[in-house]
UniProtKB/TrEMBL annotation:
It comes from Pseudomonas frederiksbergensis. Its cofactor is Fe(2+). The keyword Iron applies. CDD domains: VOC_YdcJ_like (cd16348). Keywords: Dioxygenase, Iron, Oxidoreductase. Its EC number is 1.13.11.93. Belongs to the 2-oxoadipate dioxygenase/decarboxylase family. Gene3D superfamilies: Uncharacterised protein PF07063, DUF1338 (3.10.180.80). This is 2-oxoadipate dioxygenase/decarboxylase. GO terms for molecular function: dioxygenase activity. The keyword Oxidoreductase applies.
Length: 460
């Protein structure tokens, strides 16, 4: 029931992503510095590596590169998560994937809100890694009840944002004016607040339980805690960060450097302490650190088989390291990763033949000029050069990497070990719907591209 006067959700998402980036750049100047470094690096890579430039042009990723970023937030209650899901839906963002962070001692579970169709991703690949605090993991019943009562009192959406979400749902979309109002109002949910909602002592208590609990419970809303641009060469950015006054974490999360990048590589830097006023103080005499910076490099999405191989090699390298990667063992960790990942084919053809990665298929000029192709298989078309492939970019996140990013920004406080297991069902109940399986989305995109090729060629 799409109305001609309604703005497409993809465009609303594109506008929102830009507004978020502008807000964050103003709030956190280091983000601006990082964006410049990433832009410079991307220009350099595109100029010096025509192969990458060609590949990004043919997939259309070149046009979305400068728009590309993800953010992260953490919410405290089921109601907050469910309303967020509705807010993101106005922008065409669906919850994709389920990530359990408790094995890494972080008391949350998460999903990523993002567009799901390749055409929508092309307009704006903006994603938000969204975590729900697991209050049940606070051991002290009194503190747990206190945290719950503080969260129950807050309202993280503006009244106008709520009205607009409802209008979008009942009308089936938003008009131009409503869409701009929505962007402005939705942004308020993610804004930083210099004043806390608890006293300094209460903050200390929450923080002593887990720094993340204080970050979620003690504030008016789920401030965006980082916004991550996409770089084409994360090793260059990592190496240049110190010269720009930015200190990166010790190791890059994700797979090692390769000829054919896979999945996601990420690095981050710690945010500075920021001044905060607690409710029993009239000036900003306290401090809190939550906001940090991160960059990422994206590679090919892996099939279940590829992902299983990735997980096995990553675990093998980490097991052999016998410790969490840190400053002291970083060189050894990189060595072990390179060694173990030697087993992962590093050519597109190798990954395709072994069905380790997802691909997009394109008809070539030669293919368009050919005829009499009835009954010919996809493999025949590929070897005849009538069709060619590009890897599908990974649009999601990685739980082990996410845990590393969380931890590096929570400080090196003692590791907590939770005796609970992942609970996707409870997460989905809070969310008010099921999360989408990301692997199914890649398989569908790949299949659509194959079908388009076959249709185009068999007409010829
Ligand atoms: C989210 C950390 C995870 C990523 O890119 O994997 C993350 C958070 O700190 O809230 O951002
Ligand atoms: Ni992130």
């Amino acid at each position: 029931m799409s109305h001609p006067d309604f703005v497409s959700p993809d465009l609303i998402r594109q506008r929102f992503s830009k507004a978020m980036s502008d807000m964050y750049r103003e709030e956190v100047p280091l983000y601006g510095a990082l964006m410049e470094l990433v832009e410079q690096t991307n220009r350099h890579v595109l100029a010096s590596d025509p192969q990458i430039a060609r590949q990004l042009e043919s997939t259309g990723e070149i046009q979305r590169l400068d728009l590309e970023r993800h953010g992260a937030i953490r919410v405290g209650t089921a109601t907050e998560l469910a309303t967020l899901a509705r807010l993101f839906a106005v922008m065409g963002m669906q919850p994709v994937g389920y990530y359990d962070l408790t094995p890494a001692g972080v008391p949350v579970h998460s999903t990523a809100f993002r567009a799901v169709h390749e055409a929508a991703l092309q307009v704006s690949p903006f994603r938000v890694f969204t975590s729900l605090l697991r209050l049940e993991l606070i051991e002290d019943p009194e503190l747990r009840a206190f945290a719950q009562s503080v969260l129950d009192k807050r309202s993280i959406f503006t009244p106008t944002a709520r009205v607009l979400i409802e209008q979008a749902e009942t009308q089936g979309g938003l008009t131009e004016k409503q869409a701009w109002d929505f962007v402005e109002q939705a942004l308020e949910t993610f804004r930083w607040h210099h004043s806390a909602t608890v006293t300094a002592a209460q903050y200390q208590q929450l923080s002593a339980q887990h720094r993340l609990i204080a970050d979620v419970v003690a504030f008016k809303g789920p401030h965006i805690n980082h916004l991550t641009p996409r770089t084409l060469d994360i090793d260059i950015v990592q190496a240049q960060m110190p010269a720009h006054g930015i200190t990166p974490k010790a190791v890059i999360e994700g797979p090692p450097r390769r000829q054919c990048p896979i999945l996601l590589r990420q690095t981050s830097f710690k945010a500075l302490d920021e001044p905060i006023a607690f409710t029993d103080q009239d000036q900003t005499r306290g401090s809190h650190s939550a906001r940090f910076g991160e960059i990422e490099q994206r590679g090919a999405a892996l099939t279940p088989k590829g992902r299983a191989l990735y997980d096995r090699l990553l675990n093998a390298a980490r097991d052999e390291l016998k410790d969490f990667p840190n400053e002291a063992n970083a060189a050894r960790y990189n060595e072990l990763m390179a060694q173990h990942f030697g087993e992962f084919p590093d050519t597109l053809e190798g990954m395709r033949r072994q069905e380790l990665a997802y691909f997009r298929y394109f008809v070539t000029e030669k293919g368009l000029a050919a005829d009499g192709l009835d009954g010919v298989t996809l493999e025949d078309l590929l070897s005849a050069g009538y069709v060619r492939v590009e890897p599908l970019v990974y649009e999601d996140f990685l739980p082990v990497s996410a845990a590393g990013i969380f931890q590096s920004n929570l400080g090196d406080a003692a590791q907590t070990h939770y005796g609970v297991h992942s609970n996707q069902q409870a997460f989905e109940q809070a969310l008010g719907r099921k999360t989408i399986d990301e692997l199914g989305l890649y398989a569908e995109t790949q299949q659509r591209s194959i079908e388009e090729c076959l249709t185009a060629l068999k007409r010829g």
